[in-house]
Design a protein that fits this description.
Elements: H1 2-7, H2 14-20, H3 29-42, H4 47-52, H5 54-60, H6 66-70, H7 74-82, H8 90-110, H9 113-120, H10 125-135, H11 141-150, H12 163-170
Helix pairs in contact: 3-8, 3-11, 8-9
InterPro entries: Adenine_glyco, DNA-3mA_glycosylase, DNA_glycosylase
Binding site for Zn(2+): 5, 18, 158, 162
Pfam family, one: Adenine_glyco
């Protein structure tokens, strides 16, 4: 993602995301869920497309409230498929609803999405992918990598010489709390 550190700053959409969100630890369930939803919807598209549609996603998915999305029914699915403001892909929409239901179950089994991530950290990227594939839908290697980097569980969101990297390190992201990640 080193090119992102060169091209994102100053861009109206990429800049704020790069400077204030990408790679910073996330503790709020709805923000973790939002990031997962956005990464799933980015598959096959540009990140800029997703960032431009972010407000529409937020509205369509009820501010990424896990309980609200987990309760979506067929009428909600059709509403989402008819919403030109978001990415209208049935597999992605179904995955988002399913994944919200999974996150609700993670509250019971682990105390929440973040606690589930924390209990499994650190894993290699390959191990994370296997875990996500067993747990969630529409979570291939690239989606898992970007989600975990964006939420602070894997290093690599920024170059070491990027000014944002120092700010991220000051927050002690999960990837920086271990001596070293286990090798792939």
């Amino acid at each position: 993602m080193s090119d992102y550190c060169d091209t994102a700053p100053g861009h109206p959409f990429h800049g704020p995301y790069h400077d204030n969100e990408y790679g910073f630890p996330i503790h709020d369930e709805s923000v973790l869920f939002e990031r997962l939803v956005l990464e799933i919807n980015q598959a096959g598209l540009s990140w800029l497309t997703v960032l431009k549609k972010r407000a529409a996603f937020r509205s369509a998915f009820r501010d990424f409230n896990v309980d609200s999305v987990a309760a979506f029914n067929d009428r909600d699915r059709q509403r989402l498929l008819d919403d030109a403001g978001i990415i209208r892909n049935r597999l992605k929409i179904d995955a988002v609803i399913h994944n919200a239901q999974v996150i609700r179950h993670l509250r019971e089994s682990h105390g929440g999405f973040q606690a589930w991530l924390d209990v499994h950290h650190p894993l290699t990227h390959a191990e994370w992918v296997k875990l996500f594939k067993r747990t969630f839908r529409f979570t291939g290697p690239e989606i898992v990598k970007e989600f975990l980097m964006s939420a602070g569980y894997l290093p690599g969101a920024h170059r070491d010489d990027c000014p944002v990297q120092a700010r991220i390190l000051a927050t002690t992201p999960p990837w920086a709390q271990t001596d070293a990640l286990r090798p792939e």
